[in-house]
Amino acid sequence: MPHTPLPRRPAPPLSVDLVDGGTWDLHAQEPEHFTLVVFYRGLHCPICKKYLSTLNRLRDRFAERGTEVVAVSMDPEARARTAAQDWDVDALPLGYGLTETQARDWGLYLSDGVKDGEPDRFSEPGLFLVRPDGTLYLAVVNSVPFARPPFDDLLKAIDFVLENDYPARGEVAEAALVG
């Protein structure tokens, strides 16, 4: 079972190539409040297409809240480019080439392809909010493609967090629970 990084602790490193060129590095980001990292399954996933299209449409609303966004998959460059061309994600930075090691570091579930069009191995979805200091604020990890948090709900949550200076929760490590 994957071990999801803990809130209030440093987020794992993340550096990926972008479809539009260049490299995106988490620790080089300088958001006002958060960086939203959305891991998606890849080109084969119609639910990801719809989910990222919604994120693309709401990107400005996240920016208004001081939140930068990126979407990342294990797809190789060619598949990521096809997603960028065929999906409604023109305003969304798309990272590709996430490695299995990186996916495991983020606590993502991995699946082996079982249908035509699926890659041999890919990560299941995950959504993370990272503070400007590089610490994890929120983690949502799925073992299936559905039941992801709606972005409208996440926007409301960010508003609440910012208005109430609400702390990250879930920071107690497993070792602290034993004995």
Task: Walk me through this protein's architecture.
The chain has 179 residues and is of the alpha+beta class. Strand 4, helix 2 and strand 5 form a beta-alpha-beta unit. It has five helices and nine strands, in the order E-E-E-H-E-H-E-H-E-E-E-E-H-H. A seven-stranded mixed β-sheet has the order 2-1-5-4-3-8-9, covered by helices on one side. It has a two-stranded antiparallel sheet with strand order 6-7. It is globular, with a radius of gyration of 16 Å.
Order of the strands making up the biggest sheet: 2-1-5-4-3-8-9
Q: How many beta-strand runs? A: 9
Order of helices and strands: EEEHEHEHEEEEHH
- On the 0 to 100 scale, the average pLDDT is 95
Distance between the termini: 22 Å
Indicate the radius of gyration in whole angstroms.
16 Å
Percentage of residues in helical conformation: 25-40%
- Class of secondary structure makeup: alpha+beta
Principal-axes geometry comes out as: globular
Low-confidence stretches: none
Q: What percent of residues are in strands?
A: 15-25%
Strand count, sense and barrel status of the largest sheet are: 7 strands, mixed
Helical run tally = 5
Oligomer: single chain
